[in-house]
Amino acid sequence: MGGIPELFGSMVFDDRVMKATLSANVYQSLRKTIDEGLALDVEVANAVAEAMKDWAVSKGVTHFTHWFQPLTGITAEKHDSFIAPSPDGGVIMEFSGKELIKGEPDASSFPSGGLRATFEARGYTAWDPTSYAFIKGTTLCIPTAFCSYTGEALDKKTPLLRSMEALNRQALRILRLFGNDEVKRVSASVGPEQEYFLVTREMYDQRPDLRFTGRTLFGAPAPKGQQMDDHYFGVIKPRVAAFMAELNEELWKLGILAKTEHNEVAPAQHELAPIYTTTNVATDHNQLTMEIMQRVAAKHGLVCLLHEKPFAGVNGSGKHNNWSIATDSGQNLLSPGDTPGENVQFLLFLCAVIKAVDDFQDLLRLATATAGNDHRLGANEAPPAVVSIFLGDELNAVLEAIENDEPYVGAEKAQMRLGVDVLPPFSRDTTDRNRTSPFAFTGNKFEFRMLGSSNSIACVNIMLNTAVAESLKIFADRLEGAEDFEQTLHEMIKRTIRDHRRIIFNGNGYDDAWIEEAVEKRGLLNYRTTPDCMPHLLDDKNVRMLTSHGVFTLSELKSRTEIMLENYCNVVEIEAATMREMALSQILPAVESYVAELAAAAAAKRSVAPSLACAYEAETVVRLSELADRIFQASEELGEAMASLEQASDVVERSRKICDEVLAKMDALRTPADEAETLTSRKHWPFPTYGDLLFGVD
Ligand code: ADP
Ligand code: MG
Questions:
Q1: I need a labelling partner for 454 at 20 to 30 A (CA). Which of 210, 376, 606, 688 fits?
Q2: Hey, whose CA ends up nearest to atom 1 of ligand 1?
Q3: Ligand 1 midpoint to CA 275 (Å)
Q4: How crowded is residue 354: how many other Cβ atoms within 10 Å of its Cβ?
Q5: CA–CA separation, 240 vs 236, rounded Å?
Q6: pLDDT in tens, 562-580
Q7: Dihedral (C-alpha) 452, 305, 210, 698: value to the nearest 10 degrees?
Q8: In sequence order, what are the residues at sequence separation of 6 or more whose Cβ sits closer than 8 angstroms to the Cβ of residue 188?
């Protein structure tokens, strides 16, 4: 292997390759399209396609695909080969600008939530030149947006690009007001930290629950869990290290900036963090990272679990969405500057985020809502389902001083006069301590921690970008019309802090007292489950905001609500069916055969020595028989709860019933089954235990 600099991006048609393979003119036009969103003309597209194909073919590529992100949350591709017949009976390798720019996959099998009537099955994919094409195996992958024939988004990338545009538009207005005329573009950056579990393939294959649902539906706790804290940042085991090394190499080839890796809190849990990049590219890269994690794990005889809660009783997996806004000249707008002017600007952007998070708590919450993540949010390990912002003591004191028109007493107790234009020297370290906040300011960025490990990061960033664009728009409207800019600015910052103070919370987010205070005293929202929050996507204020920035149409929002709820129903229904099958066809027969064995043993022993008590056999037979009856009964009741779903008139009601009735019956089935596991001989138990799974990788 060559060095990492040679390896890095070697499978990406990136700027280096473009420069080397395109004529100066073509390169310039393409750059303009990428940087400024200008349309690409046909000749340029043809030249780019030709260069892309030649580059790809030189690396052994035979096919191309428009790579897109339908609302299933994973990626989709349909492969076409480059071959075209030549007159002499052979073939030539061909790829036109038209094929690069637009594709027409049959869209009928992707969820559309009623957006596309089935007779109008055609959808089209459109090249997103802001995300580089890359090679996977023998296929050239072209990142694309996926729309219905009438132009409605059927994917996650389209609204994400629209939200980036909305944020750019409004942020530029603000920067212009501060006299900044140079900046051409503002965009959000994201660094998503990805958590995951690794288990052995052999054990995975023996667990129908893992295979069908990605999480364990049964399993008594192992004697050892995460109580020793000996896994977090611990030494990485050889097999895991080998996996990580190959994973890094594969990611680097694709130009993904994999940077940090370590063990996480739970046994068998790990994390990977890339260096941040623009939201759009970060989203594509995170989708690819999840895919490649699974592929590389398979090569090492492992399975990578991306489910939010694969094991009860130990931590689940999340994804921390580190988010900031930066200009094309590299200025981070969430970083306090060195001069007073930069500080006011920073405070204004900070206020925009605070206002956005308070006004649209529900959108941030529901962008993370899935059946899997419902097991995590609000358990004592992940942020609560209540959205709040952590600012840290220092910044909090600054905001308080502004709100009350008081001088700020800084950390060294030095008094400084604080208009809006002075910020004390700001130490980033003091802000990074709180791990329990859903939305924490960490010095020059916000870390949003509610996202589940398997979620696409697109939805959260769509909501964040657009909600902040909305705050900035309101600010810009006011400031542009202001007679006294300074005065209006000062008043506006002060008022925003006062109006939205309730969303700021610097204490322990895991504390029950906080949830009570948040809901009772502060009036914050606490949507505990997916069915609780998802319908609020269609609340008037949300529809108005999202449509006014052109990020979604009303019908797109309706379709998304429907798809997310359908997905929730499907996931839980598959889990419920899997549980019943495991209980009836594996657990009960195992318990039964062990009971028979014990009974036979007791009878045999007594035939030799009639006075023997055979207490172990007798008591275990009784307890297991009782448990078997409970398991059977609970399976029946779960079946009935599932059958009653047919009465639900629509997906909202169905998801409600699933949440209230089916999940409760699933819990009721798990309890006796897990107890039976602790009493049944290992030889009879039909699948690997928690101990096997969590400590099985060496
Ligand atoms: P921690 O575990 O302390 O949260 P990590 O180093 O694991 O820190 O992850 C931090 C993530 O934040 C990385 O992906 C990093 O690239 C990203 N990040 C750093 N600065 C910014 C920024 N300005 N904007 C967005 N993401 C950032
Ligand atoms: Mg981290």
A1: 688
A2: 193
A3: 7
A4: 24
A5: 6
A6: 999 999 999 999 999 999 9
A7: -140
A8: 164, 167, 278, 279, 323, 324, 325, 326, 461, 464, 465
pLDDT value at position 359?
98
Query: What CATH architecture does domain 567-694 belong to?
Result: Up-down Bundle (1.20)
- Burial bucket for residue 72 (CB in 10 Å: 0-12, 13-18, 19+): middle
Nearest CA to ligand 1 atom 24: 324
Q: Which overall architecture, per CATH, does domain 194-217+228-317 show?
A: 2-Layer Sandwich (3.30)
Alpha-carbon dihedral angle through residues 214, 216, 222, 225, given to the nearest 10 degrees = 50
Burial class (CB in 10 A: 0-12, 13-18, 19+), 119: exposed
Q: How far is the CA of 447 from the centre of ligand 2 (A)?
A: 10
Decide the pairing of beta strands 186-200 and 319-327: antiparallel
Structurally, at CATH architecture level, domain 4-155 sits in Roll (3.10)
Q: Which residues surround ligand 2, an ion (CB under 5 A)?
A: 193
Report the separation in Å between the CA atom of 273 and the middle of ligand 1, taken as the mean of its atom positions.
8
Spell out the residues 6+ positions from residue 687 whose beta carbon is closer than 8 angstroms to its own.
206, 207, 208, 586
Q: Report CA Rg, the chain.
A: 28
Note if the pTM is more than 0.85: yes
- Residues belonging to the chain: 698
Cβ of 191 below 6 Å from ligand 1: yes
Residue extents of the structural domains in the chain? 4-155, 156-192+327-409+430-552, 194-217+228-317, 567-694
**Segment 312-334, tens digit of pLDDT:** 999 999 999 999 999 999 999 99
For ligand 1, atom 11, name the residue with the nearest CA: 191
Asked whether the beta carbons of 215 and 454 are under 8 A apart, the reply is no
Residue 279 and residue 302: Cα distance in Å, rounded? Answer: 30
Q: Residue 118 — pLDDT band, cuts 50, 70, 90?
A: very low
The residue type of 582 is M
